[in-house]
Amino acid sequence: GAGVSQSPRYKVAKRGQDVALRCDPISGHVSLFWYQQALGQGPEFLTYFQNEAQLDKSGLPSDRFFAERPEGSVSTLKIQRTQQEDSAVYLCASSVNRGGEQYFGPGTRLTVT
Amino acid sequence: EDQVTQSPEALRLQEGESSSLNCSYTVSGLRGLFWYRQDPGKGPEFLFTLYSAGEEKEKERLKATLTKKESFLHITAPKPEDSATYLCAADDFNKFYFGSGTKLNVKP
Lengths: 113, 108
What we know:
The structure holds two protein chains of two kinds. By secondary structure, chain A is mostly beta strands.
């Protein structure tokens, strides 16, 4: 009964470096979401996948952010040329279908120095 | 613009002192209203989904209710282990909009 897992749990990057954050959703969950959570705030939507199709990427803050889910299971969020304002917790969530409750992973805390 | 507002931002209660948390939403069409609990350093944990005005759901000391403009999370006789941040989210068929949360601290 594994839940959603994310790796790494913590990442420190120097400004300008590229980072890749991984999400392993619950097996069989069709929908996968990425969120960004700043300290003391609620999660903010970044992007949504249904199987391997990225149906909504309207929340990605810039073209430095890129997400993929090539086989409809594991997803990777990539941030190129990281900036200090990218420092946040990145949460991944999966659900059985689009309208169902989302189950969250523990998040990856990204710190850009 | 669609948005979700939670109040209060922080709430301190004595053990056993019941209270309510508020979630106001302005979305053009509500598919569902979700409540989550988030502990420090962890991802949000699902509590309830409400779909229509008048609906109520209960789990242990928590009860969630929904009207056309807001949802309440009622906490009855809270215990210290109920201390956490409680988040609500509104799904308008396009996106999930989260509030900033209510940080609850229950003192023994």
